[in-house]
Amino acid sequence: MTADLSLSWKDLDWIRSHTLLPLIIKGILHPDDALEALKYNVQGVVISDHGGRQMDTSLNTAEALRDIQAVL
């Protein structure tokens, strides 16, 4: 599976135009991404490494939560 490099935060506007459901973003690990999600008025974020615990270099989600909480 390859990443779709055309995706951007602005795609949230398109998603919002097609649903009245709350937008909750999964896979946030960096404080800058959490702040960007707030700019797009998402209803929630899920601090997640998408199963990255299987990789030795993956950021620990507990550490990510601490860093994100510090900026919110």
Automatic annotation (TrEMBL):
<dbReference type="GO" id="GO:0005782">
    <property type="term" value="C:peroxisomal matrix"/>
</dbReference>
<dbReference type="Pfam" id="PF01070">
    <property type="entry name" value="FMN_dh"/>
</dbReference>
<keyword id="KW-0560">Oxidoreductase</keyword>
<protein>
    <recommendedName>
        <fullName>FMN hydroxy acid dehydrogenase domain-containing protein</fullName>
    </recommendedName>
</protein>
<feature type="domain" description="FMN hydroxy acid dehydrogenase">
    <location>
        <begin position="1"/>
        <end position="72"/>
    </location>
</feature>
<dbReference type="InterPro" id="IPR037396">
    <property type="entry name" value="FMN_HAD"/>
</dbReference>
<dbReference type="InterPro" id="IPR013785">
    <property type="entry name" value="Aldolase_TIM"/>
</dbReference>
<dbReference type="InterPro" id="IPR000262">
    <property type="entry name" value="FMN-dep_DH"/>
</dbReference>
<dbReference type="GO" id="GO:0001561">
    <property type="term" value="P:fatty acid alpha-oxidation"/>
</dbReference>
<dbReference type="GO" id="GO:0003973">
    <property type="term" value="F:(S)-2-hydroxy-acid oxidase activity"/>
</dbReference>
